[in-house]
Task: structure prediction
Amino acid sequence: MNYTEISKFTRDEIISQLPNSKWDVIIIGGGITGAGVALECVNRGWKTLLLDKCDFASGTSSKSSGMVHGGLRYLEQGNFKLVKEALKERYFLSKKLPELVKSNRFLFPIYNSWWMYLKVKLGVFLYDVFAGKFNLKNHFRLTKKQILEKYKLINPLNLKGGFIYSDCLVSDSHLVLSILSTAVQKGLALANYVKVSPPTKNNLYYELKWDDQVSKLSGKLNSKVVISCTGVWSNNFNLSKNKLIRPTKGVHIVIPYNRLQIPTSFVLPSNDGRILFANRMGDFLYIGTTDTDFQANYDKVYAESEDIKYILKKVNEIFPTINISPNDIISTWAGLRPLLDNDGNPSQLSREELIIDNEGYINMCGGKLTTYRCMAKKAIIKAEKYLGILNKPNKTIQLNSIYFINESLETQVENYLKTSMPLTLIDLMERRLNLYRFDENNGMDNIEFISEKMASYLGWSPSERKQQIINYKEYIKLNHDWALTI
Ligand SMILES: Cc1cc2nc3c(=O)[nH]c(=O)nc-3n(C[C@H](O)[C@H](O)[C@H](O)COP(=O)(O)OP(=O)(O)OC[C@H]3O[C@@H](n4cnc5c(N)ncnc54)[C@H](O)[C@@H]3O)c2cc1C
Result:
């Protein structure tokens, strides 16, 4: 393989070099925002370190709907600039990572109102126009009769017709790992499970305290520029008294594909202004999402019974004859959107970003998975004021793909261990192998084999391996606790 190793062993080396080290840029947070910024930084020749308090992509960047999209819904909010920017990024990513970012057809069925029909018709038309030369495939109309022929289980009552349009699907955590891997090849130093405290200015450098959650080592770091890419945790890195982020929670459920058998991705319209999506992943369909304010612990976000009831109600309204029930649900996931703090209905909150520069201490808030590159470039313009450009940036970077889905299970485990630094069984099962979500038994049928491979690579003792399995089972349980109160 032509990858730079990113493993527990490279991590050990990086940790040993951390005490009192000096950097051009330290990036806090290894979600999509941090990964995108890191790649832009190393592409300019800056000595860059990225640290995450947990696993890479373990925050919102592995909890999305996995759509690299323009955001049809944002047209309704008049947010044309965001949609145009995102459509261009959709094209870029589908070309750069074709095995990971895949073009997909979506049906948008319209019920009840001809006014709604016209609105969606205008929406999909504008979507294609705004994409221009970066379009995937043009939309087309389906009559009610055509929809009923293809989507046999769909509710025919008050169905007016619908539109097929295109967007891309992606496995979000693999997108993050792919960008990080590319940045490491260009010189990025990185480590997961290292918590960083907000910086303080000390002459020319910012000083930061770091705590390695694994070795329990801690110390200080120095950097000319610090970029916080901490998503919903951004409020902890905010110098002003104002709250920056208003997180809203989004939940997805996974059911077997054969329960609905829809031939394309599917938009589930709803009367409350939200739209839900059903997307296929192999033998499974994932459906979501909810959008509700969240004020509890950002590190403990799970689906609750109200979320599940809401999603099942929407599905069963559109597919009334099959009665999808809680028993059909194989897995769930829940994440927090790092939305800019504003008043109003959660679904109407802006998906735009805010980048605050306090003399080289840069805080990146908001944004979307799809537009990570645009956000990163804006942050870099701010960082350049303090660092200058050491390298002429390469405009045609080849992205590494860290996505081994077509390999045997054994090869996948080996590859992910060597190229993406998983340290726990949950890291591997949830964000690399995708087995927690997309397997009838959440990967438990292969848990002995996988954990043994991991133990032998990482040097776990038998009791450590057992504990890792216990932790993974607990993780499955926490994500299924909604079933106790439904
Ligand atoms: C339900 C849902 C569906 C979505 N669907 C889509 C979609 O389909 N398409 C799309 O484009 N966007 C979508 N989004 C939005 C997108 O997922 C987010 O905007 C994006 O993932 C945010 O990435 P981030 O890197 O800013 O934050 P995160 O991924 O949360 O990363 C922040 C990181 O900072 C780390 N961190 C925090 N504090 C510290 C500290 N003190 N020290 C070290 N590290 C720290 C965290 O551990 C975390 O890994 C969706 C979001 C949600 C919630």
Observations:
- The chain has three domains: 8-61+173-245+350-387, 106-169+246-346, 409-484.
- The mean pLDDT is 95.
- Residues 114-131 form the longest helix (18 residues).
- The two ends are 47 Å apart (CA to CA).
